[in-house]
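Ticket reopened. Same input as before:
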Amino acid sequence: MFPATRAAALARLEAFLPRAGRAYAERRNLDEGPGRRTDVSGLSPAIRRRLVTEEEVAKAAVAAHGLAAAEKFVAEVCWRSYWRGHLETRPALWQRYRDDLARLDSALGRDASLAARFAEAVSGRTGIDCFDAWAHELVETGYLHNHARMNFASIWIFTLRLPWQLGAAHFFRHLLDACPASNTLSWRWVAGLQTAGKTYLARPEIIRKTSLGRFRVDAPLATAAPPPPPEPPAPLVPLAPLPAADPEARTGVFLHTEDLSPETLPLPAHPVALAAVDAIGGDPAELKRAHANAALEDGVARAAAHFGLEPERLPEAALEEAMRGFAARHRLAQILTPFAPVDPVASRLARLAATLAGDGVRLVPLRRAWDARAFPHAGRGFFAFRQVIPELVG
Ligand SMILES: Cc1cc2nc3c(=O)[nH]c(=O)nc-3n(C[C@H](O)[C@H](O)[C@H](O)COP(=O)(O)OP(=O)(O)OC[C@H]3O[C@@H](n4cnc5c(N)ncnc54)[C@H](O)[C@@H]3O)c2cc1C
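Engineering reply: fixed in the latest deploy. New output:
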């Protein structure tokens, strides 16, 4: 159901464009159900892997409708850039989430009641019809409509009284579009942590309406969503400048699953060698793994054709050593790689950079102009960020 190649993603974009204008503004909150959705694009797994970029999608919508009519669609695409920039400039939010998760994972092992409620929720056995259907849909398709995500998260937190971090981790394992920034910060937003004191309450009548009557929502839902105690603000960390690539140096390219449009990367030097990780890392659910790996294969094939180079596949499980070998075999002075935002690929690249530096090889991340323009405006609220959208798509 979700494009895993650039060609399929561009075809999906093309087919969706007629509905990306005023129709999107009017109908994007309606969820016709799996396999029947026509009011949203279903492009998020492809955008997540950058088979198509936010820039391409937003600009195509503006070209088709003009900015005024495409404003809502473009704003939604820009939410992704905003969340990514926000986490990039407030990295403590990610670390806090990871620390909480480690604590909660061990609580799940000790607290039988928490473990039982968690198991009921993730396997769709709560007796709340919409929630149970979404729990199954998430695991069976790797996707949920935005309204389903908001209501699932709200019911998880305020009706089932489960910690938001466990819900975010469950989404992250299953969503084909799982993005550390969009996912974690959206869960924080529903929980009332992202916009301090503002929570999102799931309401039965809204769920009935936006699901076009697919759900009755007879089971009682929480009628209040009290905000959590305020947490200390995460410090704003200005974007660190990236090391500059040397246009004269002997250059290799390394591809990973964070950005798979090598043909539109801002490459300052022509590469003599091409490598790519052989698979997505971490512990994703099977569908997510399959989608990410298919996207990776497509990206590598296009990179090979674009650069005219035979790709080498480096094992994810032993990347450091394999990368050193790749650099040595081709006598590389630098390896260019798409910039990876927070996290876990970014940490991996930082470790790789340190290992390669010991061999006198530079690992140089390439940040797209879109990210470089968007991220510095994302440290505060979306309202301020919104002001730069015309400049971004201009
Ligand atoms: C709790 C929760 C968790 C979420 N987790 C993720 C996630 O891990 N990855 C992810 O990409 N989105 C996430 N979202 C945002 C949103 O739900 C999905 O991007 C959207 O449902 C994808 O469907 P679509 O491609 O049909 O969207 P469309 O409506 O067609 O929108 C076009 C594109 O804009 C972007 N977009 C749209 N809405 C949002 C939004 N609210 N926030 C950020 N980007 C948006 C996506 O890239 C999407 O493909 C989450 C939302 C919530 C409430």
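The first strand starts at residue 251 and ends at 255. The chain has three domains: 6-89+375-393, 92-210, 251-366. Please confirm and we'll close it.
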